[in-house]
Design goal:
Length: 100
């Protein structure tokens, strides 16, 4: 019996980044990894703003971001999303992770 691809899709997490605010990070997909061979800023597609808008309007602008901040963002993109287990009265939403 084939595996349902819905169970294998990239997960997301919300992280508070000092000096930027809350960003949503999606785990990289196979397509992202393949694109990374020719696109230095492939990881920008894995980051969105809290309102769902793109992190940058032009992914090439990532080359202008401070190196320390870019490293922090890329670290979150590459960090696996771990399932969180809330209390029995939890609403089912994952808590915001603060790692500044």
């Amino acid at each position: 019996m084939p595996i349902d691809v819905a169970n294998l899709r990239a997960r997301q997490k919300v992280v508070e980044i000092d000096g930027v605010g809350q960003l949503t990070f999606r785990e990289p997909t196979l397509a992202d990894v393949q694109r990374s061979q020719t696109d230095l800023y492939w990881w920008v597609a894995c980051v969105t703003c809290a309102d769902g808008s793109p992190f940058l309007s032009n992914p090439q602008e990532a080359g202008q971001i401070r190196a320390d901040l870019a490293a922090r963002l890329l670290e979150e993109v590459n960090k696996p999303v771990r399932p969180t287990h809330g209390s029995s009265d939890a609403s089912g939403e994952s808590p915001t992770t603060h790692r500044g």
